[in-house]
Amino acid sequence: MATTFAFIGSYADAQGPGVYACAYDEQTGALKLIGQTDGLQNPTFLVPDAERRTIYTVLEGKDAEGRKCGAAAAYRFDPASGSLQRLNEAITLPATTCHITLDNTRHFAMTASYHGGMISLSPILDDGGIGPTADMHRHEGSSVHPAQTQARAHSVIVDNANRFAVVSDLGLDKLFVYELDLANARMTPRSETSIAPGSGPRHFVFHPALPFGYGINELNSTMTVYAYDANEGSLEAVQTVSTLPASFEGDNACADIHLSPDGKFLYGSNRGHDSLAVYGVDQASGRIEPVEHVSTLGGHPRNFALSPDGRFVLCANRDGNNIVTFRRDAATGKLQPTGSELRVSKPVCIRFAAIAD
């Protein structure tokens, strides 16, 4: 038997709580806070390893000269007490990081630096801690967007075969594919795909069964559908659609993207319109069709997650200081708020893990 828990990353200073552990009610989608960490500076993005009962989070670190840099920390989670015990902390990049993921074997962690335009690869140690950086890559260039004068790697997403990883670079309007050579702890550039100038690609997701991937573009509020060649490690953009209703005229910046477990519906978050955009996914062509826009009931929905069974969507509203639960209709993809809400300071990431009892 396994019990599902949720873990939350947030903007926080080192004097207060930053990572939260929550019990999750699979019948109602409600969260209950059961544990938290202190002493971390902005542990914004995290990823759990359910088998090891370990949580990995990015944070702001300092190098030997006291300069701000990217770091990651590992915590062992006790499902009985809800406690999070610190294992270690390691510097990952010479610039602050915004995203962390694990490869599918959970032997390596990969981080991305928005401010440095870099990515890193670090081994997971035998005790579950994070080892020293084994490989690092820096992107170069800029966008036509006046605010994007440098590379800005925003996320690293591993494909289903654990062979390639996609890096969305918001500052270059490009997606880079890296080949994973985990036996030698290396990531090798394989291909790159340019999209419309000024788009600002941010996050990416692979379809669970079909040869397609989906990217959300922060700066021009769009979703892009990609044909994915899993043998060559290449992407080809085949469709781009807006994340906003035609009537909306305000400022907006997109953030997160997820597929339903069955791959039939796609979801993306709008910050400004403060909504979740819902799309149906054609199971032959991979193309998407808008279904609805749903208010997130809070400001600046930077991140959200679908429950493992796909019955609920939980949305983290940074400026609303809340995580709102929505019930999901598996047939239509539509969302309905349940009335359940967890109040927590500046949440910006939520991840589930089913942990063996």
Overview of this structure, please?
With 357 residues, this protein is mostly beta strands. The protein has a 4-stranded antiparallel sheet with strand order 3-2-1-28, with no helix packed on it. The protein has a 4-stranded antiparallel sheet with strand order 4-5-6-7, with no helix packed on it. A 4-stranded antiparallel sheet has the order 8-9-10-11, with no helix packed on it. Strand 2 and strand 3 form a beta hairpin.
Provide the descriptors you would attach to this structure in a database record.
4-stranded antiparallel beta sheet; globular; 357 residues
Q: What is the approximate shape?
A: globular
Q: What is the helix fraction of residues, given as a range?
A: under 10%
Rg over alpha carbons: 19 Å
Strand count, sense and barrel status of the largest sheet are:
4 strands, antiparallel
Q: Say how many strands there are.
A: 28
Number of helices: 0
Q: Which whole number gives the mean pLDDT?
A: 97
Structural class: mainly beta
Q: List the helices and strands in order.
A: EEEEEEEEEEEEEEEEEEEEEEEEEEEE
Q: List unreliable stretches of 5+ residues.
A: none
In short:
Helices cover 0% and strands 57% of the residues.
Explain the layout of strands and helices:
Layout: E1 2-10, E2 17-24, E3 31-38, E4 46-49, E5 54-62, E6 68-77, E7 84-93, E8 99-102, E9 108-113, E10 118-123, E11 135-138, E12 153-158, E13 164-169, E14 174-181, E15 186-194, E16 201-206, E17 212-217, E18 222-229, E19 234-242, E20 253-259, E21 265-271, E22 275-281, E23 288-295, E24 301-306, E25 312-317, E26 322-328, E27 335-343, E28 347-356
Antiparallel strand pairs: 1-2, 1-28, 2-3, 4-5, 5-6, 6-7, 8-9, 9-10, 10-11, 12-13, 13-14, 14-15, 16-17, 17-18, 18-19, 20-21, 21-22, 22-23, 24-25, 25-26, 26-27
